[in-house]
Every structure is written in C-alpha cells, then in structure tokens.
Amino acid sequence: MKELFNYYKNYIFVLIIPYLIIMFLLVYPINFSLQSPGGLTEVENLIEVDYNNDKEITGTISTTYIMSIKRPTYFQFMLGTFTNYSTISVLSGSNLTYTNQEIAQISYLDKEISVDAAVIVAFQKAAESNNDIIIDYESKIMVYGKAEYLDSYADIDFGDEFVKLIGDNDYEVTDISEIATYTVLNESYDWTFINELGDEYTVSLSKDAEYDKFGITLKTYYIVDKETTYPTYSEGSSNIGGPSGGLLQTLSIYNMLVDNDLTNGLKIAGTGTITYDGSVGYIGGVEQKIITAYLNNVDLFFMPSLDEGYYYDNYQEALRVCEEYGINPTGWLIPVSTFTEALDYLEGLD
Amino acid sequence: MKKSISFKSLREEFSLDDIMDSFFGALLLAIILYLPIYLICFELITVYMYRLTLLVVLIIIALFGFIALLHYFWKKSLKLKNTEIKTDINKLFLKNTLIINLVILILGLTFIFVLIPALWV
Question: What ipTM was estimated for this complex?
Fold first, then answer.
C-alpha cells in the first residue's frame, strides 16, 4: 500500500485541491428546492385487493411521481439549470426549518394516509352496488407538524398518535377542537401520545411566550380497520412519498373491486389528492408531472380542476405547460374535481 | 518460456500479506478516485430520473471502469513490490477484470429489467 501511495504522491499533491473543490460541490447542500420529472408507478404494484382474482385488467392505472430535492448540492443545482424540465426555487416555509429526514417522514406519512383515504373512498363506492364489500375505519389524531420551539421536540415524532392532554381543572382533552379552550390557565400541560411502536408516553409541553402556542400541529385521519374490512388487501412498502397519488389509487382500487374493467386497455395516469368525501385536491409540481406523463406516453391524464377562474388552478396551470411545450391536451388531459367525475369519464369510454 | 497465468503462481511469488496489502491499497486509491464519479452518477439520477435506464447503463459503465482501475492499481502495486514477476500478471488481471465485469453486466441488466419495475412503487 505504502509503495503505491509513494509512487503516486506527486499526483496526489497536485490533485488534492481540485479534488476537494469537486467534493465540496458534490456534497454541500444549499437552501433551494429542485423539482424535476420522475416516472409512473402502477398502483397494483403497491396495493393488491384479494377479490375478483380471475378478472383481467387490460390497461394500467398509475400514479405520477416527480423528483423533489430539498437542499440540493451545488452540482444538483447546476444540473437543474441545464434542463428546461426542472424548476428551482428558494426553500421556504416549514421546509426551511425541517431537516431533509423530517421532510421525508412527513412525505411518507402523507402517502400512508392517502392510501387509507383511497381505500375508504373506493370501498364505499363499490359497496353501493355490492353488499359483500365492507369497509371499517377509525379516526386517529396524529402529529403532522412541529415548530422549532416545541418542547420535547426530539421525543415527539411525526405520525405519533395524540391520546389526551390534561387541561385546566384536570379536564381530560381528547378532541383537538377543545385544546385551545382548556389550555388557558397554566404554563405547561401533560400530553400523552402513542409512538410508532405502540408505546404510550407523556411529555410536558409549554406554550411559547412569543407565539402563545405549543408548536405542535395535529390532524384527524381515518385509518382502515383491516381486521373487519372485506375483501382484504395488502399494501406493499413504498419508496415514494406524498399524497398526490390519492385519486389514481382510488380509481385503481375501485377497479379491482368491480366486475367490469375501467381501463379499456388504456395507459391511465394522473395526479390529485383524495379526501374522505371523494373530492380531489390540488397538488404541486404540475409542470414536471405533465412532462413525466408526456414522456411516458400515457393515454389519459387526470388533473385536479376546482376553479377555472383561479390562475393557479392545477388544470389551468397544466394547460399553460402544454402550450409551452407544444403538447396537445385535447382528449388527453382530463380535468376532474371528484373521484366520481373521473369514474364517470372512464365508464363513458365504453 | 511461457509465463504462467494463474493466481496460484502469483501466490508462489508473493506472500498472502503482500497480495492483500497491494489489493487494499489499490482498492483505497480506486475508491478515493472514483468517489466523485459515484456521487455524480447518484446526483444525475436524482435530477434526471426520467432517464433512469440510461443512467443505470452509465453506472454499469462506471463500474466497469472502477474494476479496471482497481486491477490496474493492484498490478502496479505488485510490480512495485517485485519488479521481476514471472507470472503474466497483465493477462491474469485482464481475465479477472473481464469476469467481474461480466457479473456486473448481468446484475446491472437484472436491475434494469427486474428490480427497478418491482421496487419503484
């Protein structure tokens, strides 16, 4: 080993400075966000419903993912400027305070919740015409956001379940709408959570003097009870986060539950979150998703359209992207505001 | 006289410690030299994910280069230890490089056609 390094020592001395400069460009993160096109993933690779197993699905239903890089390196930043397909913006809002690992945690939490919402909406719709189908779910209050000033920041994780807090006059608060009302008299309160492993823990949280808040964001979610839900389904592990696949997941699950094939042999993709009442929500990265779909030659692409007059409406934005890149959206880009609208469109293709 | 092309004859000329010392020296130098290339490949994939297959091909080619470089440094190190090697080290290491690169090619193609579609969900 020594002989080798001695033999090349002159080269090593000469190259050490350029080498370190290159390494710096390759590893030093900067406070920007870079979005570039990604790909399609077929929903049936992620969720498999044990029903209608003999049914032949002739086409595909896929979600669309994009690459969202928080805090890219200088080199990634430069690469992003070389292609028209990428968008670079300054990192802002909560993304600035969260670490990349925390952003990823939130993203995966969003994905899990989105899959449960998709199962609930699809099963409920399918149950309208098939009494065999049963969907059961329960509500849970989960940690969705943490401010920098939150006490016990490291102990509380994203996705931990809120159980209770002991409020003023020892009132036990279990409903998030009551938190503000029963946390007026004291400085700090005992909060109880359940972590990912199922262990219950209690932490004392105080309100921040400047913001007069505890610094924790809680949200109510519905989680499917897999024990009582019929038919059973299995969910694979995913390495893609975010809730924007909700609509397409709902369509695909529904397609696995009904007798007829909604796909008609088409390559169907799209984007849009799904809420428990079946309405579709806005997503980010419209430009990259349209390009991804175009590069992957999809036959139909569903895009949230909630308000035609709104400049940043996803569908309006998608139309502008199509115009910019010379893509004809006619018969290909489908605006939808609810799951039922998307379903009606596919059923109308017959 | 025809030179031998086997690790057995190499083992007769060098102690195991010398061969391993040369190998780890070569590995360390090759890794240091290739580290920016690996990082560049990784970052290219993150930004140009829509060209994933093309980039995996690029990584396979980069791995070919890494294996060739590793063998080059290994050979160099051994030659620096003993200038009069009787084993045909050039042919021996070329054969070894080709075999390893063939394995990389097979694994790479499996990755492109089997693992990427299966894992990326």
Answer: 0.82
